[in-house]
Give the backbone structure.
Amino acid sequence: MLSGFRRTETRRGREFSVQPVSGQRAVKQYTCPGCSGTVDPGVAHVVVWREDGIMGPQADLSGRRHWHTHCWRIS
Ligand SMILES: [Zn+2]
C-alpha cells in the first residue's frame, strides 16, 4: 500500500485527520489504540489526530496516534 494524501474522517461526531503511512516510511514501533497491539516497522498504517480539539492544532499534533489501517477502519 502506498502512502496517500491526508484525509478527514468523522468518528462519533468528531473530525479526525487521517494520514496513511507507507511501509517504507514506517520506521518506528508504535502501539495501536484500537487493539493495543504493536504496529511494527515496515507495516503500512495510518496516523490519526483530532481536527477539532479544544486545545488547538498544536496539541492535536502532539496527540497523534498510529493505528493499524484495519483497526481504524472498524473503530
Ligand atoms: Zn490495531
The chain has a mean pLDDT of 88. The CA atoms of residues 3 and 70 lie 15 Å apart.
